[in-house]
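The records we work with from here on pair a chain with its fold. A complete example follows; check for yourself that the lines match position by position.
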Amino acid sequence: MSAVPQQELPRPGGFPEIRYKRYVPKIGPSGLALFSGITLMCTLGLYRTGQGNLERRELEREKVWSRIHLIPLLQAEADRDTYRREVAANEREAEIMKDVKGWKAGESVYNSKRYTPQTYVVVP
């Protein structure tokens, strides 16, 4: 008795489809929307940086000019202070050297006109 081989056949309606492709759902904005948004943000940031640089430059210029205009006032104040200190030093010198004959307070002890006294403040 010989048996007739029987071939296996698919079931009625066929086998289900095998998913071999990657299935990623579309979530979020498209690439074009992301690129446009990033470009817009970078442009806005660079614009604001440029405006800030202009403002900073204007404030720096204003500070420099205010210092330039204050220089004469500060120089006059320094001159008054130097004069006041010189007068006080001459008075102290006259008080200390009052017993020395021929001593003139405030007169240079050097025989040359090239020497100019230094103007600095000694802080104890």
Notes: Residues 31-96 form the longest helix (66 residues). Residues 31-97 form one domain.
